[in-house]
Amino acid sequence: GIDAFTTITHFSWLRTFWSTLIVTRSILSTSREMRIEKRTIANIVCCEKCWNYPHMEDGIDCDDLGTTLSVKMSSLGGVILHELVHFDPMCVPSIGQQTEDIAWGPLSVRKLRQNEPENACLNADNYKWYARHLWWTVICNRRFSAPRGKIDTYEP
């Protein structure tokens, strides 16, 4: 499995922005930036469910993902990416403001992109699902169709 130390090691390039990245467990996933003794610390708290997602090093089989963009593609890395884009250094220089939580999940973010494109670039989960879709398209060497509804978006 993966733990906080492993996660921090994988994301060590983030020290460009913060002196320390802390990833911990809790009942909710959140992110915040802190200043402690002149150091900027990025603190990401991942809910317990996040730590149970399949890990890339476990060798996820592309055939297990089905043919549509779905929650089967979820990972701890995706949650961390979602939380990271809430931090000012990640998106403010590009989009001019902080990201928000407007819609979650592959179907909701797709609908947001189609119906409110001006809000899609402000939504943290749009970045996560774009990255997930691109990653699995490249890794599996195939296209995934749009999510179909609850069957692709419900997490037990």
UniProtKB/TrEMBL annotation:
Residues 73-131 form the Lysine-specific metallo-endopeptidase domain. It comes from the Eukaryota. InterPro entries: Lys_MEP, MetalloPept_cat_dom_sf. GO terms for molecular function: metalloendopeptidase activity. SUPFAM superfamilies: Metalloproteases ('zincins'), catalytic domain (SSF55486). It holds the Pfam family Aspzincin_M35. This is Lysine-specific metallo-endopeptidase domain-containing protein.
